[in-house]
Backbone:
Protein backbone atom coordinates (compact mmCIF):
# COMPACT_ATOMS: atom_id res chain seq x y z
CA UNK A 1 0.00 0.00 0.00
CA UNK A 2 1.12 3.54 -0.72
CA UNK A 3 0.85 5.90 2.24
CA UNK A 4 0.68 9.64 1.70
CA UNK A 5 1.04 11.77 4.80
CA UNK A 6 0.39 15.50 4.57
CA UNK A 7 2.16 17.49 7.26
CA UNK A 8 0.30 20.46 8.66
CA UNK A 9 0.80 23.33 11.08
CA UNK A 10 -2.65 24.63 11.84
CA UNK A 11 -4.35 25.03 8.49
CA UNK A 12 -1.04 25.31 6.59
CA UNK A 13 0.21 22.26 4.67
CA UNK A 14 3.97 22.24 5.22
CA UNK A 15 4.80 19.22 3.09
CA UNK A 16 4.14 15.56 2.47
CA UNK A 17 5.71 12.12 2.59
CA UNK A 18 4.87 9.34 0.12
CA UNK A 19 6.04 5.79 0.70
CA UNK A 20 5.32 2.26 -0.38
CA UNK A 21 4.14 0.48 -3.51
CA UNK A 22 0.40 0.43 -4.10
CA UNK A 23 0.38 -3.26 -4.97
CA UNK A 24 -2.26 -2.81 -7.64
CA UNK A 25 0.08 -4.41 -10.20
CA UNK A 26 3.74 -5.33 -10.54
CA UNK A 27 6.29 -2.52 -10.38
CA UNK A 28 6.54 -0.90 -13.79
CA UNK A 29 2.97 -1.82 -14.74
CA UNK A 30 1.09 -0.21 -11.83
CA UNK A 31 -1.13 2.61 -13.08
CA UNK A 32 -1.86 3.80 -9.55
CA UNK A 33 1.84 4.17 -8.70
CA UNK A 34 2.32 5.98 -12.01
CA UNK A 35 -0.52 8.39 -11.19
CA UNK A 36 0.90 9.09 -7.73
CA UNK A 37 4.44 9.60 -9.02
CA UNK A 38 3.24 11.89 -11.80
CA UNK A 39 1.25 14.06 -9.38
CA UNK A 40 4.19 14.33 -6.97
CA UNK A 41 6.59 15.28 -9.77
CA UNK A 42 4.18 17.87 -11.14
CA UNK A 43 3.78 19.40 -7.68
CA UNK A 44 7.54 19.52 -7.05
CA UNK A 45 8.27 21.00 -10.47
CA UNK A 46 5.56 23.63 -10.07
CA UNK A 47 6.76 24.72 -6.62
CA UNK A 48 10.48 24.72 -7.43
CA UNK A 49 10.73 25.42 -11.15
CA UNK A 50 7.65 27.49 -11.94
CA UNK A 51 7.18 29.38 -8.65
CA UNK A 52 10.96 29.52 -8.05
CA UNK A 53 10.66 28.44 -4.41
CA UNK A 54 13.17 26.16 -2.76
CA UNK A 55 11.08 23.27 -1.47
CA UNK A 56 13.29 20.59 0.04
CA UNK A 57 12.82 17.27 -1.73
CA UNK A 58 14.26 13.95 -0.57
CA UNK A 59 13.99 10.87 -2.75
CA UNK A 60 14.91 7.49 -1.29
CA UNK A 61 15.21 5.10 -4.21
CA UNK A 62 15.69 1.93 -2.15
CA UNK A 63 12.57 2.45 -0.05
CA UNK A 64 10.60 4.04 -2.89
CA UNK A 65 9.72 7.12 -0.88
CA UNK A 66 9.75 10.86 -1.47
CA UNK A 67 9.35 13.78 0.88
CA UNK A 68 8.72 17.45 0.13
CA UNK A 69 8.90 20.34 2.60
CA UNK A 70 7.67 23.81 1.79
CA UNK A 71 9.93 26.67 2.88
CA UNK A 72 8.64 29.13 5.44
CA UNK A 73 8.52 32.90 5.12
CA UNK A 74 6.78 32.95 1.75
CA UNK A 75 5.08 36.05 0.43
CA UNK A 76 1.29 36.06 0.75
CA UNK A 77 1.00 35.46 -3.01
CA UNK A 78 3.41 32.50 -3.00
CA UNK A 79 1.88 31.03 0.16
CA UNK A 80 -1.60 31.20 -1.36
CA UNK A 81 -0.39 29.55 -4.60
CA UNK A 82 1.50 26.76 -2.80
CA UNK A 83 -1.38 26.05 -0.42
CA UNK A 84 -3.80 25.84 -3.34
CA UNK A 85 -1.50 23.42 -5.14
CA UNK A 86 -0.98 21.22 -2.07
CA UNK A 87 -4.70 21.26 -1.24
CA UNK A 88 -5.42 20.12 -4.79
CA UNK A 89 -2.85 17.34 -4.42
CA UNK A 90 -4.47 16.24 -1.17
CA UNK A 91 -7.89 16.18 -2.82
CA UNK A 92 -6.53 14.20 -5.78
CA UNK A 93 -4.94 11.60 -3.53
CA UNK A 94 -8.13 11.40 -1.44
CA UNK A 95 -10.10 10.70 -4.61
CA UNK A 96 -7.60 7.98 -5.58
CA UNK A 97 -8.14 6.50 -2.11
CA UNK A 98 -11.91 6.44 -2.75
CA UNK A 99 -11.26 4.46 -5.95
CA UNK A 100 -8.49 2.23 -4.56
CA UNK A 101 -9.02 2.02 -0.76
CA UNK A 102 -6.85 -1.08 -0.43
CA UNK A 103 -3.94 0.50 -2.29
CA UNK A 104 -3.53 4.11 -1.13
CA UNK A 105 -3.96 5.70 2.28
CA UNK A 106 -4.02 9.46 2.83
CA UNK A 107 -3.21 10.84 6.27
CA UNK A 108 -2.70 14.22 7.93
CA UNK A 109 -0.15 14.73 10.68
Residues:
Amino acid sequence: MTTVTFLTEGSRITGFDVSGHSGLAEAGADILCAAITSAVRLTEATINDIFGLAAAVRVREKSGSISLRVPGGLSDRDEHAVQGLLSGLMLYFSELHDEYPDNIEVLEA
